[in-house]
Amino acid sequence: MDDKLMLMIPGPTPVPEQALLALAKHPIGHRSGEFSKVMAEVTEGLKWLHQTQNDVLVLTASGTGALEAGIINFLSPGDRVLCGANGKFGERWVEVCTAYGIQVETISAPWGQALDPEAFRLQLEADTAKEIKAVIITHSETSTGVVNDLETINRHVKAHGQALIIVDAVTSLGAMNVPVDAWDLDVVGSGSQKGYMIPPGLGFVSVSPKAWEAYKTAKCPRYYLDLGKYRKDAAKNSTPYTTPVNLVIALQTTLRMMREEGLEQIFARHSRHRAATRAAIKALNLGLLADDASAAYSITAVQPPEGLDAEKIRSVLKKQFSIVMAGGQDHLKGKIFRIGHLGFVSDRDILTAISALEATLRELGYEGAVPGAGVAAAVRVLAS
Question: What is the pLDDT of residues 208-220, one digit of tens each?
Fold first, then answer.
């Protein structure tokens, strides 16, 4: 059936009808007074969502563009940085640093496991000469559904005294508590197609006063991603380059929706959906890549039963039920599938996805669980 596709992936995420209607409006001039008023409201809403009084800048870019901007505006070639890598995106920031000649030291963990905060403490305390300029952390690792202990790692960064904390919050902002000011986070990057509930196309970077001081002496090459230009224009409720105005207007809509729901309620909804999804997967006797202590609010990575390829499960889900789940990346391709429960997702969506997954497993010959066990387990969580 046409137009029935249901996204249960870590991004792009489902878009509310109100936002779709905003996208369908006639564009307005990105230098007009009318659009300036929209930008003013959006900027204020972004500060609310980020829980900060710092600058939150809007870029026409993906989450990767936002993080690249968050790295190159505050560092110079030859600078020494620590970068956590326990998944595809942590490894990507290592690659970005290397591309710009930044001296990157990697603190790693196997995919599916959280980074050890103690490893960061030891490295930072050993740096008595204060040569480490930044620590780069992926808060919620999209490729594995693992959340890293950003709060504890950041405490070690703050104890160092000199290093900046640069955070990939692409699949945590809008789903999990990321209190930028309370935790004193210096640079936080994210993307529109996740918890913000609009299509891909916008990146966001929050910047602390300490980071702006580092900006003054940073020497990585930049032009389009020069955040100083965005800061200057943001003060006038504008942007330095052509803005996708309809995306910003859609963001105005979804930020209003989020404020109406409330931050604590948003976080509680995502936590409940994580719990329901994980309970269902356990009841179906399937594997979970991340343990309970390090499971992200936004993504659940599932290990299929012995003898079943994850890509086959995804294929049947899409063909028979028009439900899209994400596959594994790199060496995990075919070994896991990822259920996204991020952004505009309701209890009904969780139950629909789990019931379709059960039917798919039965069709593929899996008899390792009592029929209906997954849905029943999810219902128990959602009803509690």
Answer: 999 999 999 999 9
Of 284, 286, 263, 282, which Cα lies nearest the Cα of 274?
282
Query: Is 31 in a helix, a strand, or coil?
Result: coil
Do 189 and 80 share a structural domain?
yes
| Same domain as 280, residue 242 | no
Listed in sequence order, the residues at least 6 apart from 117 whose beta carbon sits closer than 8 Å to its beta carbon are 149, 152, 153, 156
User: DSSP secondary-structure letter at 27?
Assistant: P
Please give the tally of structural domains in the chain: 2
Integer angstrom CA distances of residue 52 from 98, 187, 307, 371: 30, 11, 48, 47
Average pLDDT, rounded, for the chain: 97
Q: How confident is the model at residue 312 (pLDDT cuts 50, 70, 90)?
A: very high
Distance separating alpha carbons of residues 32 and 296, to the nearest angstrom: 40
What does the pLDDT read at residue 4?
Answer: 86
Q: Looking at 243, 260, 277, which one is the last position of a domain?
A: 260
Its domain, for residue 246, covers: 17-260
Task: Encode burial over 7-26: b for 16+ CB neighbours within 10 A, e otherwise.
Answer: bbbbbbbbbbeebeebeeee
The mean per-residue pLDDT over the stretch 340-369 comes to 97
